[in-house]
Amino acid sequence: MHQQPAIVVVTGASGAGKTTLVNALDALRLPGVGCYFFDSVGVPSPEEMERDFGGGDHWQAATAAWWIGRLLRNEDAVRVAVLDGQVRPSMMREHLARMGARRWRIVLADCGHAERNARLHGPRAQPELATGDMDCWAAYLRGQADAMDLPVIDTSRPQDETVAELAALATALSHGG
Q1: C or N terminus of the chain, fewer CB within 10 Å?
Q2: Rounded CA gap, 25 and 42, in Å?
Q3: What does pLDDT average to over the chain?
Q4: What is the pLDDT of residue 157?
């Protein structure tokens, strides 16, 4: 059995840059740091979420619990597990505490609405996600981050700066910080 890793959850709205940030961190190949992606287990359709879980919030909660359990088992023997997921910080905090995670941090990847929507229309090629609802979700996540005093990484800055910021958070957490 491997020692429990520190867990860093990187959240943010679609187009905020969380996956780009975690992919860039993964590319650094920092010793002892493993990167994971919430949606890699598959995202059911809204109809399936409703039928099988009772709705999207319940699917997100069940999948978050699955991920935290997997990370805590530490099958990959990492010191720090970084999870990219578009999840509510308050829900992740509840799961991390309830499931016995000892060292963890939730981080918000964020940028302005105009930039996020430009990414969705441009490089991401997902203009259907550039909606008022997504703008509200981004504002909600920022409000949760502010209320919970979470670190916020402004992804409108150069990527090397934002990745260095995430790497510093992960490294500090791996050393008990």
Answers
A1: N
A2: 22
A3: 92
A4: 96
Which pLDDT band holds residue 1 (cuts at 50, 70, 90)? low
DSSP 137-174: HHHHHHHHHHHTT--EEETTS-HHHHHHHHHHHHHHHH
Of 114, 120, 111, 115, nearest to 153 by C-alpha is: 111
Range in 70-74, 101-105, 109-113, 172-176 the model is least confident about: 172-176
Rounded distance, CA 84 to CA 27, Å?
14
103-131 core/surface letters (b: 16 or more CB in 10 A; e: else): bbbbbbbbbebebbbebbeeebeeeebbe
User: pTM value?
Assistant: 0.93
**CA quadruple 81, 144, 136, 158: dihedral positive or negative?**
negative
